[in-house]
Specification:
heterodimer, A: mainly alpha, 0% strand, B: alpha/beta, four-stranded antiparallel β-sheet
Chain lengths: 267, 272
């Protein structure tokens, strides 16, 4: 009996510890965000630092974004045509492809790819700088590492994410057009004109842009935080990279639900 | 070599205590570094000597006692005062801590570019002079990854003195170096200190190299200063700790065994 209660108490204690640790971490990441925002002046004044990061997280992610966008569009086109032609509305395939990409798949998949391509690289870089005492060395040279290393990477990520998502959607729509119009033979004019009529700029496009902006900020924050906070060993860095990818993916999907429930309620 | 007192010390620690949470690391340290001196702090691994260096650099704050650098209490400084002080301070990290994504030249130029508005041509001249001083002007365009351990340490040294600091801190400058590099780095520490009119504090456990180049030595064990003196006094010391350290004996005041119950109790089947 004692062992039974002991087990329950142990279990409760474990849950309590996890909760307290979680709250601690949340508080820490919030303080970190404020420190980051306060130290962001340099990212603007010395814009070349931010542009460099924009190159690393944006330009170097182009290939994976373009190729994935194209394939997602091809698949959407095929599936959309297959379903819609049963109801005799194969012409609407353009609308379906465009709306699914602009509202959901563009921001979400681009953010997931961004987290695994650029987010993990940012965590690894900052984590290794910490492990090799480069951040400490910078601090001892009276250079604030949050302003010099963390903030430009954060802003580079925040700025490149909406651009990557837009590119992803554009490539997807191109892929959908390629498979349905060029290969299957859906009417070209119907494909584009129905899309033009059905897609609203503010409701569909801008909401998607807001989503991708939020995802970019969250993924970049998680990536720089995990790198900065990691245990300064090889094992610690590898765990931090894993956490970046896993936490980012969960955060993207959960936030997508929250944002969608506010944005798209049927007009 | 400067051994006598020269006015107020540049660095002085008075009754400094430090603890990580419950674990006491330093217990009542008194230490001073006079202008122009090279001072070594020696002791076994984990005795608290690196903590001492971090207290002087303001990376950690003492639990009690006073850490003064150039007459100002480091423990009471805010971030901007701390950064103002660190601009006049150079630090060499254990493995150099060079920025691996930029060249040797850019590493040495880093503090100059961050803290001065000098034109590029002058920064270039200054960087090449510092690299010349450590004998690596020819390596300016290499990446840190292409350097040997000793070369990386010398580049880091050039970076540490880029702003002509008043105080240079060295964290294990000899760790992991071959005998030739070790001699070179040792000589550089002395020469740069004297040429710049700076003062140096060096944390190390390399007794023989240190005895050649320093003015004064403090021995730290279990968070206290257990012995101190000039190199000649240390060589002649009959203190058992100094004797064990200088002669690298396995057992002595610093025990070979980690504290454990007597071996007899184990043999009688009593488990800890």
């Amino acid at each position: 009996m004692n062992a039974f209660f002991g087990g329950i108490v142990g279990g409760l204690r474990h849950i309590g510890k996890l909760t307290i640790d979680g709250v601690w971490r949340l508080g820490f990441i919030t303080r970190f965000l404020f420190a980051l925002l306060l130290a962001s002046g340099q990212s603007v004044r010395r814009i070349h630092l931010t542009i460099r990061e924009l190159y690393f997280s944006g330009v170097l992610s182009l290939l994976i974004i373009i190729v994935s966008g194209l394939f997602v569009g091809l698949v959407l086109g095929l599936q959309g045509y297959d379903i819609l032609q049963r109801y005799g509305s194969a012409d609407a395939v353009g609308v379906m492809v465009a709306l699914s990409l602009l509202r959901e798949l563009g921001p979400v998949i681009a953010a997931l790819l961004f987290a695994s391509r650029a987010g993990s690289a940012i965590t690894a870089e900052i984590g290794l700088m910490k492990a090799t005492e480069q951040l400490k060395a910078m601090d001892m040279m009276a250079v604030n590492p949050i302003a010099r290393v963390v903030a430009p990477r954060f802003w580079g990520g925040v700025l490149s994410m909406p651009l990557l998502a837009a590119l992803f959607s554009a490539m997807g729509i191109f892929g959908g057009w390629l498979i349905t119009v060029v290969v299957i033979g859906v009417d070209d004019g119907a494909f584009w004109s129905q899309m033009q009529a059905a897609v609203e700029f503010e409701y569909d496009v801008m909401n998607g842009v807001i989503k991708s902006f939020v995802f970019g900020a969250v993924v970049s924050l998680i990536a720089v935080f995990e790198g900065y906070d990691c245990e300064p060993t090889a094992e610690g860095v590898s765990r931090a990279i894993t956490r970046t990818v896993v936490t980012s993916a969960l955060a993207i999907l959960a936030l997508d639900f929250v944002l969608t429930s506010f944005m798209f309620r049927g007009q | 070599m400067i051994t006598a007192e020269h006015g107020a010390p540049l660095v002085s620690l008075r009754d400094v205590r430090f603890a990580y949470g419950e674990r006491s690391v330093l217990r009542g340290i008194d230490l001073s570094v006079h202008r122009g001196q090279v001072v070594a702090i020696m002791g076994g691994s984990g005795c608290g000597k690196t903590t001492l260096l971090r207290l002087i650099g303001g990376q950690l704050k003492a639990s009690s006692g006073v850490v003064e650098v150039d007459g100002r209490d480091v423990g009471k400084m805010g971030r901007s005062d701390l950064y103002a002080m660190r601009r006049r301070m150079g630090m060499l990290f254990q493995f150099g801590a060079l920025f691996t994504d930029i060249s040797v030249f850019d590493n040495v130029a880093f503090p100059l570019r961050e803290h001065t508005n000098l034109p590029p041509s002058m920064i270039s001249d200054l960087v090449l002079m510092k690299l010349q001083a450590v004998g690596l002007r020819g390596a300016a365009s290499l990446r840190p990854g292409e350097l040997s351990g000793g070369m990386a340490r010398r580049v880091a040294l050039a970076r540490a003195v880029a702003l002509d600091p008043m105080l240079i801190l060295y964290d294990e400058p000899f760790a992991g170096l071959d005998p030739i590099s070790l001699g070179i780095v040792g000589q550089l520490i002395r020469r740069l200190n004297d040429a710049l009119g700076a003062s140096s504090v060096m944390v190390t456990h390399d007794v023989h190299e240190s005895l050649e180049i320093v003015d004064y030595i403090y021995f730290v064990s279990e968070g206290r200063i257990v012995a101190q003196g000039t190199p000649d006094e240390i060589r002649a010391s009959s203190d058992p700790f100094v004797h064990q350290f200088v002669n690298a004996e396995a057992d002595g005041p610093v025990p070979f065994h980690y504290p454990a119950p007597p071996i007899d109790s184990l043999l009688q089947g009593v488990r800890p």
